[in-house]
Structures are given as structure tokens and as C-alpha cells.
Amino acid sequence: MDGVKKRSSNSLKTRLSYWISAAILSVAIIAASFTFSSAFEEAHELQDDVLQQMAVLFDHYSLTLNDGTLTPLSQDQLEFQVSAQLLGSNSASNALAQNTLALPNNLTDGFHTVNLATQSWRVFVRTLSSTQRIAIAQDTAIRDDIAFETALHTLMPLLVLIPILLLLLGYILGKILGPISILAHEVDRQTEHDLQLIPTTQLPSEIVPFVEAINRLLSKNSQVIASQKRFIADAAHELRSPITALSLQAQRLQQTQLTDDARQKLNALQAGIGRSIHLLEQLLSMARQQDNSVQQPQKISLKMVFVEVIEDLYPLAEAKEIDLGFSQDNDAELNANPVRLKTLIHNLIDNAIRYTPNGGKIDLSITKTDQYIEMTIKDTGPGIATDEALKVFEPFYRVLGSNEYGSGLGLAIVASIVQQMDAKISLAPTDAVNNCGLCITVRFPL
């Protein structure tokens, strides 16, 4: 969980999203403040223009007051709280509130903000052509409410635009950074046996130098791995001739008259030579299966490969009186490299025969479904402990306490082939109750 949080905090997309979103929100707040303030002031100016125009209408059309009183405005106009009255007149100039405002008579022409006992009023004073002075007043609280609502409406497009911009930002960043995810997938698909250069045609120009550096590194690694493979193959070939010569000399020596002590030493020598020959065969086998030029994949009958391998290993199983059983009722065709598939099955069955005690039993089976082909090899040997189930696939690793000789490469070769074939291998006890025996399952995808 901590690793996921750390990767998220180090994510380029997360950082870009955070900083660009912060920039958008900051600019939006500043723009909203400026827009709101401007709209608020403009609404006040518009209301001042309305007061001024009302006074001009009285002067232009020579409107008169009946008994010094203005005709009351309609109920719809009451919400604006506009009052008109004559200054310097004792008559009750009724307006919206039907009450005369206690405005000072010495107000000069123009705009004024007058604070009365309970309210604050915005007042425009004008001297009419008749030398009378008229005051048009409006409640400042009503003015502020109208200005606030007007300014707030100017922010609505911005408030709608910000979430859309943030969503669009996430979509655009996903599209822009998509090639990086594809690049990560391409790099993750690389295997030690098949390193391929990553194409740079669809990548952004900023990432191309980085990918080219990775390609140079992959080329160097490919050269190192190829040289290692050649060294193993060359060393195995070079050692094969002298070891074969030693084996022939030991066989000739076996035919001569020897003392019991010398014959025991000769037997030990032959056993050592046999182990060396087995190791060389495994090294050559590993070199062959890692060579991508060895035979292209083709349709192969899995049952036929089982039969060929059993024929090769049957003498070894017969010598230990092992019941090597194979159900030939089921078969499946697999698109695979023939050399690798036979090496895989040969190593698994050979390993089972070597570690199954005399008089034991080995069962082979093939299962096919719509999604995969599964082959299973069960033996009655000592099995493999759970904590060693992954270690046995490492080169030259051998389970301690085993009396059988081996090179420690058999299951390492198996693991390599399984990886190249995109298959999966699992180990489990044959007898789960008594925790004994070994059941190896290899599942090939269709």
C-alpha cells in the first residue's frame, strides 16, 4: 500500500494535474474576483444612470407634482425602493414608501450618499428648469442586493467552465502521457532471452532521447547475454571431447584385471564422469533452447512428444522399477518450438524418475479446455518444501539431503522454456494430506 502511494506521489501525471489544476484555480479565483468587482461597480453605475435619467425626465417633460406630491409607483416598482421628492418644499412628497425622506435641503446638484436614521440612501439632486430642485433617492441596501445578484450572474459561466477545464485536463494529460504507459508495457515485455529495441516513431520528441538511451542499454545487454551463451556452448563443446575420451578410457580400464580397491575407485571415477557428462548435456541443452534461431514454432501433438520422451527415459525408469503411467486417451496440439517442448518434458520426467524412490509411481496426463492446455506430472518422491518451491528454478540450486546426483540445471532450463512459451508452472504435493510427492503442472495458453 505504501509503494502504491509513493508511486502515485511520484507520478508525472499526478504532478502535472496538481500544478496545472492549482494554476487554473488560482487564475480563476483572481479572474472571478476582478470580474465580480467590475460587475458590482458597473451595476452601481447603471443604477446611478437610472436615477439621473429619472431626474432628466422630470425636467425634459416638465412633469409637475400634484399638491407637491408624486404619483405613487406601481407595486412592481416598489422592490427598487426609489423615492422622488422636492427639496426646499414643505409639501409631503410621497414616493415608493409613501413617506418623505428627511433629506438636507442644502444638498448640491449631483450624486450623494446620505445616511439617515435607519437607512442609507443614494441620492441624485437636479435643479429643474422651473428652478425647483428634485431629489431621486434609492435605498443603498437594495442597490447592493441588485448589484450583487448581477455580478454573481457574471460568474456563472466561469463556475461552469472550471470543472469542465479540470475534467478536460485529466483527459488531455491521459492522452499526452499515454505513450509513456505504452512504452512501459513494451519495456516490461522484454525478456533476457529476447531483447528487442523499442520503436521511437510514435513517441513524443521529449521522450525519444530517453528511449534511445534504453535501446543502447538493451543492445549492450544483448551483446553480454549473447557472449555468455556462446561461452557456455563453446565451453560445453570443448569439454565434451576430453570427457568422452575419459569415459572411453574408464570403460576400457573396467575390462582389465583390477584389485577390489582399484575397482571401487574406478567406479567412483565413472560416476564422476557420468555426472560431468550429464552437466555438459544440460549446458548444451540450455544453450540450444536459448537460441531463438532453432526451429520456428509449429503444431505439435503433445501426446507424441510424451511418447518420444518416455521411450528415451524408459530404461532409467525400468532400472528403478518405477510405474511410469501415461493416459493416451487425451491429446492436444500445441503451437510450440519442437526442441524446446521436448527439452521441457524430458527434463520434467527425467527429474521425476531421478527423485522417485525404487518401486515408486509416476503419472502423466494432458487436459485441454477452451482457454489452455495443461500437462501434469505426479510422482511419489519426497517432494519439495514450500520455501524451496521457487529456489529450485534457479541455476545450480539443489535440494539438500537428496541422494541423487544432478547438475542443478534441469528445472532452471524448464523455467526458462516456460517463460519463453508464455506458460505457467506450479509445484504442489501429490498427497496434500501427508505432504509428500510432487505434482508439477504446466499450463499453456491457447
Rg computed from alpha carbons, rounded to a whole number of angstroms = 47 Å
Total of DSSP H or I helical runs spanning 4+ residues: 9
Tertiary shape: rod-shaped
Q: Span between N and C termini?
A: 34 Å
Largest sheet: 5 strands, mixed
Q: What is the N-to-C succession of helices and strands?
A: HHEEEEHHHHEHEEHEEHEE
Give the neighbour order of strands across the main sheet.
6-8-9-11-10
The stretches of 5 or more residues where confidence is low (pLDDT under 50) are: 65-75, 90-98
Number of E-state strands? 11
Mean pLDDT value: 78
Helix-strand category: alpha+beta
What's the arrangement of secondary structure elements?
Blueprint: H1 2-9, H2 12-60, E1 82-87, E2 110-115, E3 120-127, E4 133-139, H3 140-176, H4 178-188, H5 208-254, H6 260-289, E5 298-301, H7 302-319, E6 323-326, E7 333-336, H8 338-355, E8 361-368, E9 372-379, H9 410-420, E10 424-428, E11 438-445
Parallel strand pairs: 6-8
Antiparallel strand pairs: 1-4, 2-3, 3-4, 5-7, 8-9, 9-11, 10-11
Helix pairs in contact: 2-3, 5-6, 6-9, 7-8, 8-9
Gist of the model:
The chain is of the alpha+beta class and 446 residues long. It has helices spanning 2-9, 12-60, 140-176, 178-188, 208-254, 260-289, 302-319, 338-355, 410-420, and strands at 82-87, 110-115, 120-127, 133-139, 298-301, 323-326, 333-336, 361-368, 372-379, 424-428, 438-445.
